């Protein structure tokens, strides 16, 4: 055990992914609780650059915005790499959507506003996240208020050199949230995060995802490439305002050059609170 590792006691598993598990960590001296992401170096063999990359991105991202999970410390042993981060005890946005079925517009708008502002900040410092989805959006505490939502998991993120906006070619992400240009291999960049904001908004408002095709992944990918989605079934969308649908269309434009930018997302009337059906009714 290294000196640094001795500073923390690890506890229950908070979550896990393919190459990592995330555990509770308690700092011995201060008693402060954190989350530690333990990445197995053996399983990442040949792709060590990915884990170094996650540290580099977190270092760049994590102090500038209150809704981005902070990297507190990192260290490694022979077998593992440890990333000590802020602890988010409120769970994943994914579970909240599943519990509630869907979100009302007012609540969805607050959540999407926080995600969008975080993405605007990430893009402004040259970071594309590439894995935005409700499983990677965590609440700091059990109040689950939008202002306590945190963007996490920078495992697939990239720092984009200035001016080279479509320099990434590697296909990665989570299929249902991946933009058409990622599959087309025409090069991708910042706009993939905006597409994911659109998919997340779609999911929040309806409780359904836009491209599920009877669990056939090939059909799902073809639908994404064609930008083939609609606001159905009607019972999920009847109560949703046209402004919200316009917001989703702007984010989920199959052409990345026509898609909203992060600034256009922030400035959209839906996020600015104009034209909301709930408000129209008052
Ligand atoms: P992976 O790259 O394996 O998906 P993540 O960074 O997304 O790893 O972490 C996996 C899961 O662990 C998350 O979906 C979440 O449930 C949990 N988790 C991650 N970071 C934290 C954190 N800072 N606080 C609490 N739970 C976390
Ligand atoms: Mg994850």
From TrEMBL:
Phylogenetic lineage: Eukaryota, Fungi, Dikarya, Basidiomycota, Wallemiomycotina
Every Protein kinase domain range: 8-271
Similarity field: Belongs to the protein kinase superfamily.
Top-level lineage group: Eukaryota
Coiled coil stretches, renumbered: none
Biological source species: Wallemia ichthyophaga (strain EXF-994 / CBS 113033)
Keywords (A to Z) from UniProt: ATP-binding, Kinase, Nucleotide-binding, Serine/threonine-protein kinase, Transferase
Keyword Transferase carried by entry: yes
Residue span relative to the full protein: 1 to 282 of 348
Single GO term (MF): protein serine/threonine kinase activity
Binding-site residues for ATP, renumbered to this chain: 37
Protein name as annotated: Calcium/calmodulin-dependent protein kinase type I
């Amino acid at each position: 055990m290294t000196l640094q590792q001795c500073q923390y006691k690890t506890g229950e598993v908070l979550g896990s992914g393919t190459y990592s598990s995330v555990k509770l960590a308690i700092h011995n001296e201060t008693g402060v609780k954190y989350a530690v992401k333990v990445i197995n170096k053996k399983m990442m063999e040949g792709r060590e650059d990915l884990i170094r990359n996650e540290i580099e991105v977190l270092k760049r991202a994590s102090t500038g915005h209150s809704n981005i999970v902070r990297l507190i410390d990192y260290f490694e042993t022979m077998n593992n790499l440890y990333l000590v981060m802020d602890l988010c005890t409120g769970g994943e946005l994914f579970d909240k959507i599943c519990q509630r079925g869907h979100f009302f517009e007012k609540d969805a708008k607050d959540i999407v506003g926080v995600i969008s502002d975080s993405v605007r900040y990430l893009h402004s410092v040259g970071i594309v996240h590439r894995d935005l989805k409700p499983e990677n959006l965590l609440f700091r505490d059990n109040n689950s208020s939008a202002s306590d939502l945190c963007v996490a998991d920078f495992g697939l993120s990239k720092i984009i050199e200035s001016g080279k906006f479509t320099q990434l070619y590697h296909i990665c992400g989570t299929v249902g949230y991946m933009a058409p240009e990622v599959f087309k291999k025409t090069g991708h960049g910042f706009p993939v995060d905006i597409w994911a904001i659109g998919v997340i908004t779609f999911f929040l408002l309806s409780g359904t995802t836009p491209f599920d095709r009877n669990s056939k992944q090939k059909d799902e990918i073809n639908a994404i490439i064609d930008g083939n989605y609609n606001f159905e079934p009607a019972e999920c969308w009847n109560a949703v305002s046209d402004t919200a649908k316009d917001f989703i269309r702007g984010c989920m434009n199959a052409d990345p050059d026509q898609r909203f930018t992060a600034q256009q997302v922030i400035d959209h009337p839906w996020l600015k609170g104009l034209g909301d059906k709930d408000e129209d009714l008052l």
